[in-house]
């Protein structure tokens, strides 16, 4: 991959769906994963194995993972299909289904940690460490998330040193990459610049960082561009801007994958993703779930395509 290229981590099937109250069939979830894979995305987070009381929408995670088509996808050595797990119970289930990568998640802040995983930051790090150690024994790759990098819904603004502490702990336990989660979507490019600069100055390698920006204030794509200018090359996003967490009230979806691919395509930055297929997938999932498509690029591309081609779908 050229030094200027980016890897997009599609979190639609997990972050995108986890906060939707209406039932979504397992077949729709599996079809979403398959369609996303056909766009060229090289990393797709498949689901989460968490308490079904915490996240009822993903309580069919084992059905998603047991399907032959999802098993076949995971056999591709050139792609990553992480599954979010909060504890050893989640990891043990992932092992049973032959999952090759898991994602562990900790919060930089106490309030969100309690609400999200029912323990302190320190206990959350310890749990993640147990998962990472056992995963290593099974040859399973581990990705890490730090949530609430700029603010916590219960505690207010986050100290950068708290993000540093969590990121160091995740890398120290063997995560190959740490995704910086702006869970509330309150980040702006200047905040991104300050935090990323601070982390790098404190010896966190930029090539082990990823950006995970929720788009509450419409800053998601700008935040990604700013982080890209700081040298970051991995970004999480969700098709049609789906996303949110039941324990982060008021936060909007992830930055839309379509918007990132549109932005990077126009900058000559390689993503490996076919934008028209992606727009088609975003249109399909929005229609299937009867939800407004939050991608701004999608609207324009879809409109232009219909105007000039006279057909309905790109
Ligand atoms: P707890 O209640 O303290 O744990 O929850 P527990 O061990 O007492 O278990 C409670 C029940 O859950 C038990 O079932 C367990 O068996 C079951 P019961 O006996 O009551 O029937 N359980 C599980 N079931 C399936 N899979 C598991 C599992 N573990 C326990 N792995 C716990 C603690 C961590 C389990 C819970 O709080 C939880 O599952 N939290 C997950 C919440 C979540 O998924 N949040 C969204 C993802 S994080 C996010 O969105 C942020 C991110 O996108 C980045 C960003 O935006 O910043 C990543
Ligand atoms: Mg998120």
From TrEMBL:
It is an enzyme of class 4 (lyase). Coiled coil: none annotated. Residues 6-279 form the Pyruvate carboxyltransferase domain. Pathway: Metabolic intermediate metabolism; (S)-3-hydroxy-3-methylglutaryl-CoA degradation; acetoacetate from (S)-3-hydroxy-3-methylglutaryl-CoA: step 1/1. It catalyses: (3S)-3-hydroxy-3-methylglutaryl-CoA = acetoacetate + acetyl-CoA. InterPro entries: Aldolase_TIM (IPR013785), HMGL (IPR043594), PYR_CT (IPR000891). One of its GO terms (biological process) is ketone body biosynthetic process. Keywords: Lyase, Metal-binding. Its EC number is 4.1.3.4. It comes from the Eukaryota. GO terms for molecular function: hydroxymethylglutaryl-CoA lyase activity; metal ion binding. Belongs to the HMG-CoA lyase family. This is hydroxymethylglutaryl-CoA lyase. It comes from Aspergillus ruber (strain CBS 135680). The lineage of its organism: Eukaryota, Fungi, Dikarya, Ascomycota, Pezizomycotina.
